[in-house]
Write a structure and sequence with these properties.
Length: 378
Amino acid sequence: MQRIVVVGNGIAGLTAADELRAQGFDGELTIVGQEVHAPYSRPALSKSALHEEGDVTAHLLPEPEHGAREILGVRVVGLDITHNVLTLDNGEELTFDGLIIASGIRPRKIREDLDCEMTFRNFEDALRLRESLKSIPSVVVIGAGVLGMEIASNCVAAGSDVTVVSRRIPMLAFMGDYLAEIFSSAARAQGVHFVGPAAVDVRAQGDQTEVFLEDGTVLTADLVITTIGDQPNTEWLVESGLLTNGELEVDSRGRLRPHIVAAGDVAAIATVHGNQRVPLWTSAIEQAKVAARTLLLGDDADELNFQHYFWTDQFGLSLKACGDFPVTGEPSYVEGIPGVEPALLRWENADGTGTAVSINYRIPIPKLRALSRQAPAL
Ligand SMILES: Cc1cc2nc3c(=O)[nH]c(=O)nc-3n(C[C@H](O)[C@H](O)[C@H](O)COP(=O)(O)OP(=O)(O)OC[C@H]3O[C@@H](n4cnc5c(N)ncnc54)[C@H](O)[C@@H]3O)c2cc1C
């Protein structure tokens, strides 16, 4: 293989390019990315970057060393897998022997056409929110997943009056009831209002924005941020024949064709909950390593086999988790008082694996991982 193109310059694209070089690939390597920036840490955007003084630097990653040709600020708009040609929105065409698809996801909105309904995915969104937080009295966050709750936490800390629109307990689907309850109690204690049912429409009203709920309630706020999920950046693949029901379903090595792989948020991988996208930082990194090796080594590359690691910081609670999420019911092991003082928890999952969680508890990740694998002797 002499010529490899990576589409997307997020963490999956960067990791894949690095891994190709680490595996000895010394051919022509090109990365095409829609964003003009070098890859950066998205997780930092909704955490430390929002309350940094001066220039924002929390998101910066070390300079890439893969030496690829980088075509930035340019979008891929088409793929022809018969002739192995990519078409870019600047009219350029790129041919390849190997292709890595790492084009990520983008947020969904209630009204695609409205600027007053903000979403939060990239560096520019973080700068805009950081600036707004200096002077915004009221904020409505639509959707109470992890991102929505991290944003709500930052808004409360900046002194805004915050309402979160959510049909269910915040983060229930992602974390499970036990942990979701701890986090929503902390949010309520800091003054966050939770309202349901779902928001169905958003409209600009002078300098403010109105949010219409299913039951006819209308909320008004200076800033409305929607965090109701995402959609994969796959429009450029619609004609390619690589999509299954709109998703990019890869095999256990990230493969779609022998010379085409996908990794990161855009890829639907096999999980214990079925084939699905796993939009998490460490998942993107591990998938990208496997996909890059597969492109070079085929079936000699190891299959994807990693344990999820996740973290969040919000409302004074810093959670780290190793193992499958969500966790069901009460933990089988608890040290400390979760939500009140530093705590370490462990769940036995139905499939025999374990999930270990620390909340405001200082523990190295390898130790947390070890706890997820082996219950402590009582
Ligand atoms: C605010 C925020 C906080 C997060 N916090 C956490 C956290 O605490 N823990 C955690 O585990 N995960 C977190 N995540 C998720 C994590 O950041 C993602 O899983 C990870 O960044 C995905 O990387 P990726 O490279 O697959 O996708 P992306 O980072 O989305 O990169 C894809 C890139 O491809 C570009 N692109 C798209 N279409 C095209 C095209 N047609 N042509 C060229 N380029 C294209 C996009 O512009 C983008 O730059 C967070 C995400 C966000 C947004």
